[in-house]
Amino acid sequence: MRTHILTLLSASVLITACSNEPTQQQNTASSPSESTQISCAFDDLNAQLDQTLQQQIKQSINQNNHQLIDKTKLAELVSQFRINTSNITENNNTCSAQLSINIGNEILHLASQNAPLLKTGNPVDLITRSLNNSNIRFDGQNFVLPITYTVTNNTITISDNNFNQTSNLIAQAVLPAGVKDMISVNGREISREAALNQLLQPKPVPKLEETAQNDETTSADETWEDDTPTQPKPKKEVDTDSSNPNKPEILKPEPALNVISDSELDNARQANRTANYNIKYAWQKIPPDIQQSLTEDQRAWESNKRQSCRSVATKGKSSNERQYLQTQCDTRMTKERVEYLNGYSIE
């Protein structure tokens, strides 16, 4: 009887062990999926994405050697970005997620404010144009984009181009935010605010026009009178009638000498007015202390231009032609001077 009971107990244990084996195998089979899912959404994911983003932005910024940029200042601003991931999934050992990058309003505002100093345009406009027909969205402060990546030993490797495109775009857009607080303009240190004020709100030209008037500057539009060479008066061709010596003389004027039409002269005058506007604007962009140092040189240039263009005008055979030649000369020399003065601009 005892032997029979022991036999039954042994059989029961064996049956129980056999019945539990499929359950253990089932649990073991499900663990890789759970492990893979955890690896795509591990705790350090956002921190690694943030570090990778900052490294790529800094690398892009370091490739720009613009002398007005403080790269340390810009790196500090970039370090304030905030990253978040959502909708994390796994498929064939490849992870997918939606990434949100908050760059904040402060850095965009500063970049927009300083953009004129670098001539880069409004950063938000740059971003909007670059993301046209893209699956990357920007709402004014946040970039939202899909990314794919793989994970090995809790270290990510980004495997799509969205992330790289966004990091490069951010680097371009926020670059003006890193303009130095003090910048060098023609060897002189001035504050960033002063440079912006001079660029965006130019002061009136100090005594430039008054100086020109005091020097009796001759405008290219002036009427030629006493200061032009005397042109020979038309000769009189006398029509006489030998049969009637008392018949009055009939004067036949020589053909007109004008070879420059009124419309051509008007076009030349318009071009000259544009050149004169440009030189005033170029002068306005020069810092006041540099303007003062250039005053004598500007006077000498005005005098030389006046004499040179008067000399050129003497080659004209008519009033229109003389004015045309002088105007053309004045315009050409003024354009050359604008290029010279632009070298002293804060831009």
Unreliable residue stretches: 22-37, 209-219, 221-240, 251-258
Percent of residues in helices:
40-55%
User: In terms of quaternary structure, what is this?
Assistant: single chain
Give the overall pLDDT as a whole number: 76
- Which H/E pattern describes the elements? HHHEEHHEEEHEEHHHHH
Tally of alpha and pi helices: 11
Give the radius of gyration.
41 Å
| Overall number of domains | 2
Helix and strand content put the structural class at alpha+beta
How far apart the termini lie comes to 109 Å
Number of strands: 7
- The geometry reads as elongated
Reported for the largest beta sheet, the result is: 5 strands, antiparallel
Structure description:
The protein is α+β, with helices and mostly antiparallel strands and about 350 residues long. The protein has two domains: about 30-180, no CATH class; about 195-230 and about 260-340, Substrate Binding Domain Of Dnak, Chain:A, Domain 2, CATH 1.20.1270. The chain contains eleven helices and seven strands. Strands 1, 2, 3, 4 and 5 form a five-stranded antiparallel sheet that branches. Strands 6-7 form a two-stranded antiparallel ribbon. A hairpin with a 3-residue loop joins strand 3 and strand 4 (about 140-150). Helix 2 (about 45-60) crosses helix 6 (about 160-175). The longest helix has about 40 residues, at about 1-40. The model is unreliable at about 20-35, about 210-220, about 220-240 and about 250-260 (pLDDT under 50).
